[in-house]
Amino acid sequence: MSHTRELLDAGPGPGNLDRDELSAAIDACLDCAQACTACADADAAEEEVAELRTCIGLCSDCADVCGATARVLSRQTRYDEFLVQRLLQACVRACSSCADECERHAEHHEHCRICAESCRECERACQRILDSEAFQELQALAGG
Amino acid sequence: MSHTRELLDAGPGPGNLDRDELSAAIDACLDCAQACTACADADAAEEEVAELRTCIGLCSDCADVCGATARVLSRQTRYDEFLVQRLLQACVRACSSCADECERHAEHHEHCRICAESCRECERACQRILDSEAFQELQALAGG
Amino acid sequence: MSHTRELLDAGPGPGNLDRDELSAAIDACLDCAQACTACADADAAEEEVAELRTCIGLCSDCADVCGATARVLSRQTRYDEFLVQRLLQACVRACSSCADECERHAEHHEHCRICAESCRECERACQRILDSEAFQELQALAGG
Amino acid sequence: MSHTRELLDAGPGPGNLDRDELSAAIDACLDCAQACTACADADAAEEEVAELRTCIGLCSDCADVCGATARVLSRQTRYDEFLVQRLLQACVRACSSCADECERHAEHHEHCRICAESCRECERACQRILDSEAFQELQALAGG
C-alpha cells in the first residue's frame, strides 16, 4: 500500500542496511507517529483524563521522535551511522516507554491498546536495524 | 497494516466526516510525506540534479504540508471545519504541483514516477473530503 | 538573535513579499509552535487538566500548523501564492482559536497567558502577509 | 523575543536541568531548523547545485532532528534522561556534520556561512546540556 519499499529500490541505495528491514522501520515509524498523535488526542477527550496525563506526554514525545526518524531513514544518500544509531536508540526508547504506559490503560481504553501495539511494532522494527551487522562495529566502539 | 482506521473507530469520532475517507486521507498524507522526502533526497543524488531543483523544492514543501495535515486530521476531538478546509486545500495544491513536476521527470527517474503516484493518491484522498457534504456549506459560504 | 532575516537576504529572494514581514512571520511561527508545545504539556500536568482538554487539542494543532508554515515560508525559491495563502489562512485560524481558548485560562495559568500572547503575535504576523499587496489579487479572485 | 524562557518558568519545571541552558538549547534548535531549511532551499537554487548536493541532504536531516529535539525539550513534565540524551547526541552530531559541510562552502555562499554559524551555536547549546551534571551519571553508566 505504501510506496516506501518501491522508493527505496529506486533510490541510490541504503548502504549496507537491509532494504526489507529499513522499509519496515520507516513504515512502522510513520504508523507509530500517527497512532501516538491519535491516542494523545483521544486521551484528552476521556472523562478520566487525569489518569492519562503521562500517556499524553509520552505519546507526544514518541510521535515527534518517530516522525523525525522516518524522515532521516527515508534519505538514503548518506547514512551517517552514528546519527542513525543515536536516533534509532531514541526512537526505541520513546516507543518502549509509550508502549509501557499505554499497556497499563489498554483494558479500559481501546485507543491505548492499539497505540501500544503500534509502538511495540515500531520498537521491534527499529531495534532490528540496531542489531544488524551494519551497527555491530559502531556498537562495539561506543560501548553503547 | 496501519492502525489508522482502528484508532479512528476507538476515538471520540470524527464528527460528520466519513471514517473510510478520513482514514484513507491520513494514510495517503503519511505515504506522500515519505515519498516526497525520499524523492527530494534521490533528486539531489542524481547527476542531472540541476534539472531537478524545482522538484527538490516542491517535494520538500509537499512533505511538510502532508505531515502537518496527517497530524491535524488524526485529532478527532474537535474538527474546526475552517482550519481543516484550508489545510486540505493547501495539501491538495502542494500534492498537485509536486505531482505535475514529478511527472515531467517520470520517464527518466523512477523515484519521480513513484512519488508522482503517491502525490496523486493523496491529492484525490484529500479532495474527496473537501467534496464531501461536511464541507459543502462552508464551501458555499466562503465562495472558495 | 535568530538567523532568519540574514538567511532571507542571502537567498534567492522572496518574490514580491516584504522581507521584514516575512522574516517576522517565520520567527513568530517558530515561537508559537514552541509555546503551544510547552503549553499543551503544562496543561496535561495541571490538577484541573479536565478543564484544559480543549486547550491541549488546540495547542497541538496550532503547533503543527505553525511548524509547517515556518518551513514553507523559509523556502524562498518558488512562492506558490495559492499554497502560501491557504497555509497562512490555516495558520491564522489555528492561532486565533488557540489564543481564544488560552485567554479563557490566562488568569489561572501563566503558561496559557504566555501562549495566548505568542499565538496573537503569530496571528498578526501571518495576517499582515495575507493583507499585503502580493495577495490582494489572489484574494479578489478566490473571493476568500 | 521568544517566549521559551517565560514558558519554562511557568511550567512544572525541568527537573535538574538548568533553565538558562535548556531555554538556550530550545531556541538554538528552532533557529538551526529554520537555517537548515532555508539553506537547503538556497542550495538547490544555486547554479553549482551539483557541488552542494551533500549540503542539501545534511541540512535536511539536521532540520528534522533539531525540530524534534526542540519539541521534546519543550515538554518539561517528564524528562526521560535516556531519551533526551540520545536525542541530544543525534542533534549534536547532525549539527556538527552540517556545519562542517556548510563551512566548506561558506566563502562562496553566504547562506552556507550563516547556516554553519547557526549549526555551531546549536551544537554548543546541546552539548552544554549533555555535559551538565544531570547527564554525568547516565554518561558514566552508558559508557557513551
Approximate helicity band of chain A: over 70%
Multimeric state: homotetramer
* Global structural class of chain A: mainly alpha
- Weakly predicted, low-confidence segments of chain A: none
Could you please describe the fold and organization of this structure?
The structure is a homotetramer of 144-residue chains. The first copy, chain A, has helices at residues 4-10, 19-45, 53-74, 81-104, 110-130, 133-142. Chain A has 144 residues and is mainly alpha-helical. Chain A is elongated, with a radius of gyration of 16 Å. The relative contact order of chain A is 0.18. Chains in contact: A-B, A-C, A-D, B-C, B-D, C-D. The A-B interface holds A 1-4, 6-8, 10-12, 26-27, 30-31, 33-35, 37-39, 41-42, 44-45, 63, 67, 70-71, 74-77, 109-111, 113-115, 117-118 and B 1-4, 6-8, 10-12, 26-27, 30-31, 33-35, 37-39, 41-42, 44-45, 63, 67, 70-71, 74-77, 109-111, 113-115, 117-118.
Quick summary of this structure?
The structure is a homotetramer of 144-residue chains. Chain A has 144 residues and is mainly α.
Core attributes:
6 helices, homotetramer, 144 residues, mainly alpha
Summarize the helices and strands and which ones pair or pack.
Four copies of one chain form a homotetramer.
Chain A: H1 4-10, H2 19-45, H3 53-74, H4 81-104, H5 110-130, H6 133-142
Helix pairs in contact in A: 1-2, 2-3, 2-5, 3-4, 4-5
